[in-house]
């Protein structure tokens, strides 16, 4: 299976990339990044092709040609600069999904899966007054609304999934696993595992809240360890 990935240099995206390189169902990964990867990723099967892209709202014909055959995209771009937050979170995600659908990169008659990394406490009502994280929560909510709207406009070509993790901890975090549900925490490896599985197999609900991401991610990683023995 061929997939697309954004944000491979970030905390979450880099872990999704590592998981994809190791997953037997994934044969090709087209990773979009604003810069080179900080260090080489083990890629013995030569699955990875990196595309350096400065503008994530426009995709040339040559780039879209490289993407032909991809069945899913994991949108994992992070936001480092608050001044460009809207451009990255809303404009880039919507433009990419529209470009991939319009180009029919998944093939005529096939539904393209777009797995979007959102956040917790998302607010879709743009007129609602919020006490904290007002702009960030509404921006993510706007993106979710637009992706769902696009899916309804192209039901034969697009399936959108929304991942809503809470606080994402590092691989070797010392935070007790038993306390994760109470604090809305999720280990980055569990998140990566479930996002990748959703890209491969889909999910029975459109929105995946942190508890689903965490529990399913742990189950998938446990099953992977069993299968490798």
Give a structural overview.
By secondary structure, this protein is α/β, with parallel strands linked by helices. Helix content is 41%, strand content 18%. The chain has seven helices and nine strands; from the N terminus they run βαββαβαβαββαβαβα. The chain has a seven-stranded parallel β-sheet with strand order 3-2-1-4-5-6-9, sandwiched between helices. Strand 4 (72-75), helix 3 and strand 5 form a beta-alpha-beta unit. Helix 1 packs across helix 6 (188-201) and helix 3 (85-102) runs parallel beside helix 4. The longest helix is centred in the middle third of the chain and has 20 residues, at 134-153. It is globular and about 45 Å long. The protein starts with a strand and ends with a helix.
How many DSSP helices?
7
| Anisotropy-based shape | globular
Beta strand count? 9
Specify the biggest β-sheet.
7 strands, parallel
- Mean pLDDT across residues: 88
Record the SSE blueprint.
Elements: E1 2-6, H1 11-22, E2 28-33, E3 48-52, H2 61-67, E4 72-75, H3 85-102, E5 112-117, H4 134-153, E6 158-164, E7 167-169, H5 180-183, E8 185-187, H6 188-201, E9 207-209, H7 210-228
Parallel strand pairs: 1-2, 1-4, 2-3, 4-5, 5-6, 6-9, 7-8
